[in-house]
Amino acid sequence: MAQDRMGLVFRKTGCEIKAAAAKRLEQVTQRLERRNQALQEFMGDAERVRSYLVRSARQTLVHGGPSLYSEGDVSSEQMEEIRQLCERIFALELEEKRLKLTIAHLDDNQTFELTYDQLASYGFEM
Q1: Secondary structure class of 112 (helix, strand, coil)
Q2: What would the pLDDT profile of 2-11 be if each residue is shown by its tens digit?
Q3: What are the sequence ranges of the domains in the chain?
Q4: Count of other CB atoms within 10 angstroms of residue 15
Q5: Are 40 and 48 contacting, i.e. CB atoms less than 8 angstroms apart?
Q6: What's the pLDDT tens digit per position in 33-56?
Q7: What is the pTM of this model?
């Protein structure tokens, strides 16, 4: 029996889970599209991409020490933003895959016992 820390158990049918997951999938897809667009814009600027790749390689090879960068180079803040953007895209793609698998493979009539965290992860709302 699935229980969360408070001992709560939520019983939901496959059909209910699929409906909530489909709504959550729509939200995830929209967020992913916005982030993919931002990444596409970055990738369209060959000079910035080159700067990012060169600086990324340098950071993994040599830590510390002063470095001088030209005006066109990607700043440390921009590198961090791009790294975070890529991490978020990766996380959203994993969530998108999980939701699609759930929708594709759950039996509509079967009842499942979910914890609060599971309930929230499928997108159930108040």
Answers
A1: strand
A2: 655 677 899 9
A3: 12-121
A4: 13
A5: no
A6: 999 999 999 999 999 999 999 888
A7: 0.80
